[in-house]
Amino acid sequence: MTGKQKVRIGRVVGDKMDKTVVVSVETRRQHRLYRRTIRSWRRYKVHDEDNACQRGDMVRIVETRPLSKEKRWRVAEILSHRELAELPPEEVSVPDSETAPAESAAAPEATP
């Protein structure tokens, strides 16, 4: 990397395109008058040659020449991968005693 390229760090929020990911970069700054921290986000379309990035990954992106109409950035490195919990599906069972009163209450008997 040369010193003139802009570098940003962001989170991958979209990976449905081929060789392209959408990266959201957060910037923080202080309000001039109220001195309160203001957070803003910008989304960049970034070139990912190997389709290595997945949603949730933290990546470093660098500015490059225009690659398409909206792509002017490329992935320099993946800083951390997302962590997903592998949970097995659970069976949901409803006891018969809970469903019986609801059925009888829904259809009251008619008395003449």
Describe the structure.
There is one protein chain. It is elongated, with a radius of gyration of 26 Å. With 112 residues, it is mainly β. The protein has a domain at 7-80: Nucleic acid-binding proteins (OB fold (Dihydrolipoamide Acetyltransferase, E2P)), CATH 2.40.50. The chain is built from 1 helix and 5 strands; from the N terminus they run E-E-E-E-E-H. The protein has one helix at 96-106, and strands at 7-14, 20-30, 37-47, 58-63, 73-80. Strands 1-2-3-5-4 form a 5-stranded mixed β-barrel.
* Low-confidence runs: none
The main sheet comes to: 5 strands, mixed, barrel
- CATH C-level name of one domain: Mainly Beta
Side-by-side strand order of the widest sheet: 1-2-3-5-4
- Helix content class: under 10%
What's the CATH H-level homologous superfamily of one domain? Nucleic acid-binding proteins
* Oligomeric organization of the protein chains: single chain
> Helix tally?
1
Give the name of the CATH architecture of one domain. Answer: Beta Barrel
| Average pLDDT score | 87
SSE series: EEEEEH
Distance between the termini: 89 Å
What is the number of E strands?
5
Give the DSSP E fraction (strand runs of 2 or more residues): 35-45%
Kindly name the structural category.
Answer: mainly beta
Characteristics of this structure?
single chain, 112 residues, mainly beta, OB fold (Dihydrolipoamide Acetyltransferase, E2P), 5-stranded mixed β-barrel, 10% helix
Short description:
The chain has a domain at 7-80: OB fold (Dihydrolipoamide Acetyltransferase, E2P), CATH 2.40.50.140. Helix content is 10%, strand content 39%.
